Amino acid sequence: MTSRQQSHILDIRGRKVGVIVQPHPTSRKLSLRLVPGEDTVKVVSPTNCPLSEILDFVARQENWIADRLDQQPTKKIYQDGDNIPILGRDHKIIRIDPLNSNSRTKGSAWLESEQLFIKSHPEHLPRRVKDFLKNEVRFEINLRAQEKAASINKKITAIRIKDTSSRWGSCSTQGNLNFSWRLIFAPEQVLDYVVAHEVAHLEHMNHSAAFWALVDELTNARNCSQKWLKSNGNQLLSYS
Ligand SMILES: [Zn+2]
Fold first, then answer.
1. 82 Cα to the center of ligand 1, angstroms
2. Assigned domain for 77 exists
3. Structural domain tally of the chain?
4. Which residues make beta-bridge pairs with 115?
5. Which 3 state secondary structure label does DSSP give 175?
6. Is residue 76, in this structure, part of any structural domain at all?
């Protein structure tokens, strides 16, 4: 986000919708898109466009916006007893009261036979669950990425776990790999494929035949994973 961006909240058919305004020097007219997975629209505007005009523009698109938002999966908030997929396998969230002395030796969060135990006060549970999942995905991705990179004699500069909702992974020319933390919900082979894809970009910064051949050397899950992401990717974005 740049400092020139501004956000506002509009009421659209009884729904609070965030409006991010991004002035752009070469933009000649207002344009609008939905931020995937969020109740937010982003408006790109010419640099000197008055705010009132921008908000009028958004208001005129309210039917379009409301229809699109209705099509988005609703955000899930983690609660005690909920089932969430971890590496594609359902786990039940079980909250443990921090004052419960029986659990004192176990740490603050752990997995045990398809259950995710979280020691937390009720109000902190959603954040603790998310923190745990981000750590898990970081561990799983690091392990695979380092191993795959070593197998092709490449060095990873850094691995970052991000909150992106538009891409599952990316690779920079400097050798930085970025991944969406929501991959933790996908089956293990899908995670393996996304890691293989980004590691293969360390060698080929394109999607050439040689790139795909290398991906297939690094994972055997390409086809099924691409299909899976196409049909289930949107669901993953519903996890907040
Ligand atoms: Zn790619």
1. 34
2. no
3. 2
4. 92, 112
5. coil
6. no
pLDDT 10s digit of each residue in the chain, 240 long? 344 577 888 888 777 888 888 888 888 899 998 887 678 889 999 988 898 899 899 989 888 888 888 777 666 778 999 999 999 999 999 999 888 766 556 678 999 999 999 999 988 999 999 999 999 999 999 999 999 999 999 999 999 999 877 789 999 999 999 999 999 999 999 999 999 999 999 999 999 999 999 999 999 999 999 999 999 988 888 787
Separation of CA 194 and ligand 1 centre (Å): 9
What pTM, to 2 d.p., does this model score?
0.72
Across 181-205, b (16+ Cβ under 10 Å) vs e yields bbbbbbbebbbbbbbbbbbbbbeee
Alpha-carbon torsion (78, 80, 82, 88), positive or negative = positive
Calculated CA dihedral for residues 230, 231, 234, 237, nearest 10 degrees: -90
Cα 83 → chain centroid:
19
Helix (H, G, I), strand (E, B) or coil at 172: coil
Residue 26 Cα to ligand 1 midpoint, Å, equals 28
- Tokens 């979280």 locate to 118
Sequence-separated contacts (24+) of 117-121 with Cβ below 8 Å = 118/93, 118/94, 119/95, 120/95, 120/96, 121/97
* Tokens 């961006």 -> residue: 5
Question: Are residue 47 and residue 95 in the same domain, yes or no?
Answer: no
Looking at the fold, whether 143 and 184 belong to one and the same domain comes out as yes
Distance 165 CA to ligand 1 centre (A): 16
